[in-house]
Structure formats: structure tokens, C-alpha cells
Amino acid sequence: PFAGRPRVVYDAFELYAVMVSRRMPGPALAVIRWLEQRLPRAADLVIAPGEIRVRYLAERGIRAVAIPNWIDPPARPPDRHIARTALGIPMDRFVLVYAGALHPARDLDMLLDHAERVSSDMVLIAGMGEDAQRLQQRAAALENVRMLGWLRDPTTLLAAADAVYYALRPEHPYARLACPNNLYAAIAHGVPLVYRAQGELALVGDRHLIGSAFVHAEGLADAIDRVRDPAENDRIRASLRGLRERYSWARAAELLLATYPTKGSAASSATTNGP
Question: pLDDT for 14-28, tens place per residue?
Fold first, then answer.
């Protein structure tokens, strides 16, 4: 009351009403939906981690600004040989990596299906979540799959990778709104993606060469084979390295500071962010 109207920033990092729509009882979900409609309208600034989320909010009368989770490359990443030695992986083996939440919405069974079909490929899965035990049980029967648990720093894992896998189950309502950190990690580390073109992945993949996209399970093998080709893999890595300055932490900070409401600025009042 003494410094003037408070400046409130609402970070729509996740859209919980969509994300938990299959796990929450109806009354609890109704409360979440109401909060996610009401709270942003009381804020002076609403930020979201990507353009897809900004569009989703705009359709509901909420004006937002995209401040993606861009990250910088590691200062001194290990080279491929050192990373593979640390993980006990031969240099000539093709390595697919997934790092993130082990959640039923993530289509990791399709990755394990590939490991079962192509035993010469190595699949490394890092992360934790409610689906961890089931995935661990399935992976135990596959010689070429390693479950690494939670990694505080995935730098060595990504340095050893030939490709990063990411896909949400297409029937999940959150798939069209996907905005995974894996996308920006792949850019920062220069590792090609094998991905289902969903949400922000589809948007960035349309603009730049970031990897090899697939739609259905039948297309996964072809997508992997495209990044398996050394010349194509090198071409994708070169494209990703070229994106690092554009998708950097410093640039994300600039975007935030440029839109952050300060005392005396022309920040919109709360009432202009919705009815």
C-alpha cells in the first residue's frame, strides 16, 4: 500500500488442469480449472514457457508472454570418448537417451519396444516418477537397456548420446501443449532429437533442423535410422550448434526483463488481462 500497486507475475509453467485431467477427481479438477482461469487475470504479467502455451492462454482471454526455458551449453562438457568410457559403452554402439519424468504420459514403452527389436542399440533412461517401477521391471529383461535413476547433472549422459528421445502418448490431452526441457537441452548439448512432433517440438522443428520426427510407432525405426546415418547426424548437430545463441539463457533473461513490470512502468493493470 505504501509502494504503489504491487507487481504480480504469474508463471504458467504448467497447465495443471490439462496435465492432471486423467488423475484428479471431478471436484478437485474443477477447483484447479477455476484457479487457473482466475489467478492469471489478477496478475500484472503472465509468462509461459513457449508460444504454444501463450496461444492456449490467449484462447481463454489471458494475455501472456513466452519466456522459454532456454539453457546454455555446459562450459566444459566431456568429449564423446570420455563420456562413453565413464558409462562403460563401446564407441561403436548407437545410443538413444531419455532423461526426464518417468510418467505414464511419456511414451517410453515405444522406446523399450525399439530396444527389444534392435538389440544392437543401447537405450539409457534417466529420471524418476510414478512409472519407474514398471519400466524398471520391463527393462530388466533387456540387456541393452539401462535405468540410471535420477541424475543431478545429465552432461555426461548427453555427451555419450547419439540421439535424445522424446514423445508423449498422442492421446494424452497434454501432448498438443508439450513444451519439454529436453528440446532446449538437445540444442544446448548439440544432440539430435528423435521426437514426436507435438506442441513446441513441432513448432521449433518446423523452423529448424533439430532431429528426426515421427508420428506413429511404425515410423520410429525410420526416424532412428535417419539420425543413425553419420552424415545426417553431423548435419543435425551443426544445425543445433547454430541455434545455441538464439536459444540461450541470457536471451531468455533479456526477454523477461524487457516485459517485467516495474514501478512507474506502463505495465497493464490486472483488469486488462481478462474480464
Answer: 999 998 888 888 899
